[in-house]
Design brief:
Among the domains are: 201 residues, Orthogonal Bundle (Arc Repressor Mutant, subunit A); 177 residues, Orthogonal Bundle (Tex N-terminal region-like), CATH 1.10.3500.10; 145 residues, Nucleotidyltransferase, domain 5, CATH 3.30.420.140; 69 residues, Orthogonal Bundle (Arc Repressor Mutant, subunit A), CATH 1.10.10.2740; 39 residues, no CATH class; 87 residues, SH2 domain (SHC Adaptor Protein), CATH 3.30.505.10. The protein is 46% helix and 12% strand. The termini are far apart. One of its GO terms (biological process) is nucleosome organization. Belongs to the SPT6 family.
Length: 1250
């Protein structure tokens, strides 16, 4: 173990922590929770139950989501009084569930199956899981509150015992009461930020003082909290104000922050008015950092605004108002307008203006965020609309209208102070609170959308694994005959998979009922067309069908599974069904099913598959998985729940990549836990067939580690679990884990009896829990009406053979007797025992049904009902003709003569090239009929039919569709109707439909901004028209290898393949007296330099004198040698420099600054810098450097004489960099100082009143 990397040990669940989890007598999932499950007293459980009901089941969401109420309350048929009764009982039921979870360490499935009496009237299993998850949130919240209270007490002790802390704000009982009253994470953050504001800088001093006093403790969580405050104690503007004594100036505003907050409920505190004018009062606090009264006043406003913004009551009130007014506006970027077409999910919502977030449905916000991350949308959360600003009804203005910080008294001094106080509130809301609220709203909306995606993903998984194991209709009749003929017992599945490329081999695998491979077959040409006209292809297909027929006759499968990859599956099923009809006696016995292939495709490339079948090709491994999927989807999907998390590769939702991987994995695991414990796990089968062992990790009380440990012990002891009691005696399972898991671990008692001589408990093969075995035996004895002294075991075996005798038992009386004996209410448990004795471990899942036509259609074509109205491109196959129903009708309709050409044409098919009527009558017998439309084929494999009336907006403008389309012509169509049974669609290619018809379920959003959309469309249209304008130039006759008669775009396209520094000389669009030289500065960057010609003989000749700026050249060679090549050499020096940032442009500021900050972290003593080329200004490079905390960017121009930097000329790159390293502190020429806006604003206010 010492030679293995720790990360690899953790991945293989072999780390020391994994060993501890295996041996600890607590459910594995309880130990792995972020906050492990802990015991709680009655008082805490009562508060927690009410809290969970309020926030988990009765809490409103910001966006429009599905109801978060109890599952039972989602039933619309419930009466009002029934709803009220359930709502009243719910907290008590939640409390009972919490008792089981926290105090008795029972997992949710155990409670749902074996403690129904305590929770069933209100809580189903999904509600119980929600209670479990919110218990973790509750415990985490209580831990954080506890740590904050401890920190407050330590700070108070530090203030009381340390003289140096005398000037600090004292921690009060009110502060601690605020922590006690916190009910949400947001509320705790509000209290925590207040503490951080006042005491954050003092925490390091307190810690140092405690160390001197020997009061510190070694607590990792405590140290983590302290480090958070240590990191937040840098000197910011607020601390600068406090250190310079501006808190005294802030106290003269008239109210303390707490008084201001309390006044928001009702004005219990009057504003204490200062007698001096604000500026005059500020003169007393002038210092070096704040040299003028205006700056002092600005600093005091900042202090007051900051303190107000940290008051929990202020934040709570304004947060609620903000969220009531919160709206979202969305518009596409330039790239978004190009990429978001009408088939895009966001097409009807790409322009949204002032939409209330309460109208955002389900995962809508996550679509917006994903599009913004892709650069397609601009998204803005805001609480004020343009109308609010225009009519002065913004959140700030409405709040100020309530005069929360206003003294109602007329005097010049009071008016000046009221203005200052109003400014403080304005800064508080606009600068401090609104950004925080926007960030909180964004995170909450994002989490709500992600929760919806997770919920839909688990529903998708449920739909995949809810089906029971496949049962053949003829199993009972044929098992004995099959065994005698050597076929074996149970269901046999023949799975067929084929590759996407038809020139590769397909494979068949024969799977028995235990998922083991009995035989396999390789078929190379099975997907080819039997009617193909290609030489030899039809014969190859027939030979494969013969081989398949022989295989079926030899192995006699009960069902054939075909992978549902594409339309080939549909044609293959048709061929196989025809083949089965040719085999006498088995056509009705063997069904042919198309099976969803996604999980099998994931499995075939997994490490797990390679380990299990190292010698099988990938397609054969896929065939094995496909057969197992049909046999039992739960086992095969659980097979993907391995250390590589292959289960996450399954596509559940289009946005699942935007969801946290751990959260999605946990939600999926809950679905597996529910289904696995519903079905039960045969441990002995897991030992015999390894691919089924992945179910064991989902058994109640167990997990991946405990499951592996259990199997390891059993493998060391004869690979056999004889009874449930052996879980304790042999496997050393603790009582808590045993109680949780025993009822869900089933034992095939008939098979175990064949392998051991020991007594086998028949109830071990049922859902009856070992704690109630005696009650089951008692029920058997009473049902048989025999003496209580009789052997209950034999009575139990007899009752299992004749369970009908249990119907006469009075279970209610039995339940009353148990209650009198102190066992509590067990009425539901007794009825469950009777049901189990009637049918041991009956599969409660949905019986298998063949997929519907709609399901197969969607599986093979990926089209759904939402595709109606969708714009797709197809390819014309042929013209569709319709023959007359009455054969004599053709003879009654005479031919038509074309007066223009003199030729005759058929009245039905409109063939026009007949010389006389005899030729027309001879053609009638072979006439295909009247053309009624066009048949097209789409990429999805379905065919489309376009009737004549949908070919054009003017159907009378043509007679024959062949006048409008031709064979194999690409054509855009709009889907009008889908027919899943025929895999076909009715389509339209009329111009009006192509322009106007919208896809189904894609009505424009109610808040769609049509004006903005039209405005952008007009701008894009004008831009496209401008791009269509061709740049004309006069072609020149110049003999030079670098001269080409091309446009600038053509020149850039040609230079893409050339080396850096190469140049092309071309005509200029200015006039015939100009040329342009285009040279390649770097990949994708080209500089265009104008050349003026003088001394021209005529307009086509080259001038005798060439000018670039004021510099003269004799010919083009001199320009290249003396102007272009020196610049190219200098550019190459930059491109090859060790600090040149490859692949980035100077305009990529975020990426460059990220690189610089990373370099600064690696070496804080060094000033990192980098060089990048400018895309916007070709021929310029940018030096980016990070002297302290802010990156700077300066341009450097390449000239033939050298580099021009800071208005100086340098001969080489080394000289410019050497000069730069010495003079980087000097401000660049032309820079200006920036003054505080708030100072100017205050000066205006104060001067106004003088």
């Amino acid at each position: 173990m010492d030679t293995i990397e720790p990360a690899e040990l953790e991945e293989k669940l072999l780390a020391p922590m994994d060993k501890r989890i295996q041996l600890d007598d607590r459910p594995e999932r309880f130990q792995l929770r972020r906050v492990p499950v802990s015991e709680a007293d009655e008082h805490e459980l009562e508060f927690e139950a009410k809290w969970i009901y309020q926030y988990a089941f009765d809490n409103a969401t910001l966006s429009e989501q599905e109801e978060s109420c109890l599952t039972v309350l989602s039933n619309p048929e419930l009466r009002i009084d029934e709803r009220a009764k359930i709502a009243a009982e719910a907290p008590d039921k939640i409390k009972e569930a919490l008792k089981f979870i926290r105090n008795q360490l029972f997992e949710v499935p155990f409670i749902a199956f074996y403690r129904k009496e305590y929770v069933e009237s209100c809580l189903v299993i999904n509600d119980l899981w929600k209670v479990y998850q919110w218990d973790e949130k509750w415990c985490h919240l209580q831990q954080r509150k506890k740590r904050l209270l401890e920190l407050m007490k330590r700070m108070l002790n530090y203030q009381m015992e340390n003289d140096n802390a005398a000037g600090m704000r004292i921690v009060t009982e009110q502060d601690m009461n605020e922590v006690h009253g916190v009910q949400t994470v947001e509320g705790l953050m509000d209290v925590s930020t207040k503490f951080q504001l006042y005491y954050g800088p003092e925490v390091p001093k307190m810690i140092d003082w405690e160390k001197i006093q020997n009061l510190s403790e070694d607590d990792p969580e405590r140290e983590a909290a302290e480090m958070r405050f240590r990191a937040a104690t840098r000197t910011d503007k607020y601390m600068l104000c406090i250190q310079n004594g501006l808190s005294a100036m802030a106290s003269r505003f008239g109210l303390t922050p707490l008084q201001f907050a309390e006044n928001l409920d009702w004005k219990r505190h009057d504003i204490v008015q200062d007698d001096e004018e604000p500026l005059k009062a500020a003169e007393q606090y002038v210092c070096q950092s704040f040299p003028t009264p205006e700056t002092v006043l600005a600093g005091a406003i900042h202090v007051v605004a900051k303190q107000l913004s940290r008051e929990p009551k202020v934040r709570e009130l304004l947060r609620s108002r903000y969220r009531l007014r919160l709206k979202i506006s969305v518009c596409p970027t330039k790239r978004g307008r190009e990429e978001i077409d009408e088939n895009h999910k966001l097409w009807p919502r790409r322009y949204v203006r002032d939409k209330p977030v309460a109208s955002l449905r389900h995962d809508e916000y996550l679509w917006y965020v994903q599009a913004r991350a892709s650069g397609l949308l601009i998204l803005r959360l805001h609480c004020d609309t343009e109308e609010d600003v225009r009519f002065k009804k913004t959140l700030l203005q409405e709040f100020l209208s309530e005069q929360p910080y206003y003294r109602d008294e007329y005097s010049r001094v009071v008016d000046m102070w009221n203005k200052i106080r109003e400014e403080a509130v304005t800064v508080c809301i606009n600068n401090f609170l609104l950004p925080v609220f926007e960030r909180e709203a964004h995170e909450r909306l994002l989490q709500e959308a992600r929760d919806y995606v997770i919920k839909q993903s688990t529903q998708n998984l449920y739909d995949r694994i809810k089906t029971a194991a496949y049962r053949n209709m003829h199993d009972d009749d044929d098992d004995d005959d099959d065994f005698e003929k050597g076929f074996g017992n149970g269901t046999r599945v023949l799975s067929i998979v084929y590759p996407e490329e038809r020139d590769q081999a397909s494979f068949c695998a024969l799977i028995d009922q235990d998922g083991q491979v009995l035989d396999h077959l390789r078929l190379v040409h099975i997907t080819k067309n039997m009617n193909s006209k290609k030489p030899g292809e039809a014969n190859l297909k027939r030979q494969d069908m013969i081989n398949l027929r022989k295989f079926i006759e030899k192995r006699r499968p009960h069902v054939i599974a075909i992978c549902g990859e594409n339309m080939d599956a549909y044609y293959l099923r048709r061929d196989i069904e025809s083949l089965l009809h040719e085999i006498s006696g088995i056509a009705k016995e063997i069904s042919v099913e198309i099976v969803d292939n996604e999980a099998a495709r994931i499995y075939m490339h997994s490490k797990q598959a390679i380990t299990e079948f190292p010698n099988y090709p990938a397609m054969l491994r896929q065939a094995v998985s496909l057969g197992r999927l049909l046999l039992d989807p739960l086992i095969e999907y659980a097979h993907l729940c391995n250390t590589d998390d292959d289960i996450l590769c399954v596509s559940y939702h289009p946005l699942q990549s935007e969801v946290n991987k751990e959260e999605l994995l946990f939600a999926l695991s809950l679905e597996f836990i529910n289904r696995v414990n519903e079905v039960g796990v045969d441990v002995n089968r897991c030992l015999e067939y390894s691919h089924t062992s992945y179910l064991l990790q989902f058994v109640c009380g167990l997990g991946p580690r405990k499951a592996v440990h259990l199997l390891k012990i059993l493998k060391q002891n004869d690979n056999l679990l004889e009874s449930r009691t052996k879980l304790v005696t042999l496997c050393r399972m603790g009582p808590k884990v045993f109680m949780n898991s025993a009822g869900f671990i089933k034992i095939d008692t008939s098979k175990v009896s064949e392998r051991t001589d020991a007594y086998v408990e028949v109830l071990d093969g049922s859902r009856v829990h070992p704690e109630t075995y005696e009650w089951a035996r008692k029920m058997a004895v009473d049902a048989l009406e025999i003496d209580d002294a009789a052997d209950p075991t034999s009575a139990l075996e007899e009752i299992l053979q004749n369970p009908d005798k249990l119907k006469d038992l009075d279970l209610d009386a039995f339940a009353e007797e148990l209650a009198r004996q102190g066992f509590g209410n067990k009425s539901i448990t007794l009825y469950d025992i009777r049901a189990e004795l009637n049918h041991r471990y009956k599969d409660l899942r949905v019986p298998y049904e063949s997929p519907s036509a709609e399901r197969i259609f969607t599986m093979l074509t990926k089209e759904t009902s939402d595709s109606i109205g969708k714009l797709v491109m197809g390819r014309v196959m042929h013209i569709v003709y319709r023959k007359p129903r009455d054969p004599e009708e053709r003879e009654r309709v005479p031919p038509i003569r074309d007066e223009r050409t003199g030729q005759w044409k058929c009245q039905y098919c409109y063939k026009p090239d007949f010389n006389n009527t005899n030729e027309v009558w001879q053609h009638i017998d072979s006439c295909p009929g009247q053309p009624v439309g066009v048949k097209v084929r789409f990429d999805s494999g379905i065919t489309g039919f376009i009737p004549n009336k949908y070919l054009s907006d003017r159907p009378d403008s043509f007679v024959d569709p062949s006048e409008r389309v031709r064979r194999n012509q690409p054509i855009y169509c709009r889907i009008l109707e889908l027919d899943p049974d025929k895999f076909s669609a009715t389509c339209s290619c009329r111009s009006s439909d192509l322009r106007g018809l919208q896809p189904q379920n894609s009505e424009f959003d109610r808040y769609f901004d049509k004006l903005k959309c039209q405005d952008d469309d007009e701008k894009d249209k004008k831009l496209r028209e401008q791009r269509k304008i061709v740049t004309y130039f006069v072609k020149r006759v110049i003999s030079h290898p670098s001269f080409h008669n091309v446009t600038f775009k053509d020149a850039e396209r040609m230079l893409q393949k050339f080396e850096q520094g190469e140049a092309i000389i071309r005509p200029s669009s200015k006039s015939v007296s100009h040329l342009t030289v285009t040279w390649k500065v770097a990949d994708g960057i080209y500089q265009h330099i104008d050349i003026k010609e003088e001394g021209k003989q005529h307009q086509f000749s080259l001038g005798k004198t060439l000018l670039i700026g004021t510099e003269e050249f004799e010919d083009l060679d001199e320009i290249l040698a003396r102007h272009i090549q020196p610049m190219a050499a200098l550019a190459r020096d930059v491109l090859s420099h060790k600090y040149f940032l490859d692949g980035k442009r100077a305009e990529d500021r975020d990426a460059i600054e990220g690189y610089l900050f990373d370099e600064k972290k690696r070496n804080p003593q060094r000033i990192p810098y980098t060089l990048t080329p400018s895309q916007d200004y070709p021929g310029k490079f940018v030096i980016s450097y990070l002297p302290r905390n802010k990156a700077r960017h300066e341009y450097m121009t390449v000239t033939p004489e050298g580099f021009r930097f800071r208005q100086q000329l340098f001969q080489s790159l080394e000289t410019v960099l050497s000069w730069f390293k010495v003079h980087y502190r000097e401000p660049p020429p032309g820079s200006k100082h920036i003054f505080y806006r708030i100072v100017a604003k205050l000066s205006f206010y104060l001067l106004h009143f003088k």
